[in-house]
Amino acid sequence: MNKLLSVERLSKSFGALRASDGIDFDVGEGETHAIIGPNGAGKTTLISQLAGNLRPDAGCIRFAGEDITRLSAPRRSRKGLARSFQITSVFPEFTALANVALAVQAQAGHSFRFWKPAQQDAALLDPAGRILDEVGLAERKNILAANLAHGEHRQLEVAMALATRPRLLLLDEPMAGMGVEESGRMIALLGGLKRRLTIILVEHDMDAVFRLADRISVLVYGRIIATDTPEKVRTNEEVRRAYLGEDA
Amino acid sequence: MNRKTLFWVVAAALLVLLPPLVLALKQPYYIDLVRRIMILAIAAISLNLILGYGGLVSFGHAAYIGIGAYAVGILAFYGVGSGWAHFAMAIGASALVALAIGAVSIRTSGIYFIMITLAFTQMLYYLGISIAEFGGDDGMRIKARSRFPLVDLGDPVAAYYAALVLMLLSALLVSRIVNSRFGLALRACKSNDARARAIGFSPYPVRLIAFVISGALCGLSGALYANHTNYITPSLMSWLQSGELMFMVILGGMGTAAGPVLGTFALLLAEEVLKGFTEYWQVILGPLLVLSVIFFRRGLAGMFSWHE
Hints:
Shape of chain A: globular
CATH superfamily of the largest domain in chain A: P-loop containing nucleotide triphosphate hydrolases
Structural class of chain B: mainly alpha
Number of helices of chain B: 13
Number of strands of chain A: 10
Number of strands of chain B: 2
Strand order of the largest sheet of chain B: 1-2
CATH topology of the largest domain in chain A: Rossmann fold
Radius of gyration of chain A: 18 Å
Distance between the termini of chain A: 30 Å
Mean pLDDT of chain B: 93
CATH class of chain B: Mainly Alpha
Number of helices of chain A: 9
CATH topology of chain B: ABC transporter involved in vitamin B12 uptake, BtuC
Number of domains of chain B: 1
Order of helices and strands of chain A: EEEHEEHEHHHEHEHEEHH
Strand content of chain B: under 5%
Radius of gyration of chain B: 19 Å
Shape of chain B: globular
Number of domains of chain A: 2
Helix content of chain A: 25-40%
Largest sheet of chain A: 6 strands, mixed
Oligomer: heterodimer
CATH architecture of the largest domain in chain A: 3-Layer(aba) Sandwich
Mean pLDDT of chain A: 91
Largest interface: A-B, 37 and 24 residues
């Protein structure tokens, strides 16, 4: 399998807390790789370092063969690494369509055009409309993002990540706070994307993880204690003790 | 015609008709008053670009009025009379200073940004006070007004119409900018910085360019101001002036096209009216401003529900 992302000895401490303690793993092109672990295991810290929002203390992140450890978040985004946030993060005073159109614009390169109105620009709105359709928000496109429901915010987050035309999608708990029905829709959506994209999925919803992931890494206290296929992770003794214990 | 266009057409028509009207009523003073308001409205329009649309609370915007005014005063002092040279220097020098101040201050945010922009402007203010050659604290007389072919800025009515045209063009310029791709990037960075970075916007250069455009436009206002008063002092750059500009924008409605114009007219006309009643006019104006902020949360423009 061709490696799209590889992480070597990634370390990040906050005071005495080792949130990432020498993490090694890699993700192949086209793979859906889930990262699971108990609360406080350092999952969001890991995602933030991959996306460029946090700088690691040590270690190296390679994306498509290039060392991106020191690149800023916007540079990584333009190279094809998109993230969604665990806590909803959209542009509340813009419509759903405008939120996605902004992501299309950001991906299209520089924004230093000062005169032509951009809000009716078909080059931005057409792709944005198609992506909203794909995530199932087409009918809500003219609603202000502030007024969307929680589940719709999560869909909008995925739409914005897709609009940057990523090669690698970093999803930080896309099902967080969703009801069963909403989760079902999100799993269907991600299942469709899985064929086209490489995905790193951080998720507590074990149903989603075992249905979507090709491989699972288990993160406990900043260390990856196992990386394997869902079947093998399910039966791994160490994992059961550390994490799955009560669920599995 | 939608409401926004209607507002600008009505406002422009009223302002165009004002000089013949007040001249017929033998009240030429109002030409001077409204001209001064329109010149300061340009400064407020420029501040609105970064404050209202960019979320950059610049507490030092008067610096660029001062730089624009001193550019005219200093060139005239050395015998340069060309209006093109005056205005090019006013705009260019303001842009350069905005680039320097912005490059440092935009790396900070929140209260630090406010304090740094204030500190830079106070530096310029004390610089103005300390240079004796240009009048120091007492200020300087403009030796010769900016000379343009066709337009005589010494003629009150011609200068009035020049200020009106430039105010409308400034409003148009800012409104085009904030709806362009650049403007959307600027507004996205204000709306949610982390999200903007995550989709690939780099906030720093976007904000810096907006800051420079805003400073340059404010420099234009300063050049007009020097021609308007014919006498300039460092107090143009004081923090009181910066605060008043912020107030005009907030009162009128941040992030709206009409807001800064409405706010400037409302504030300066209220000042004028109250001054006619009592010499303690500030005691009345202060509470009025507090009430207006409480009751018009979205500014005067919000009353017409134009908030974008």
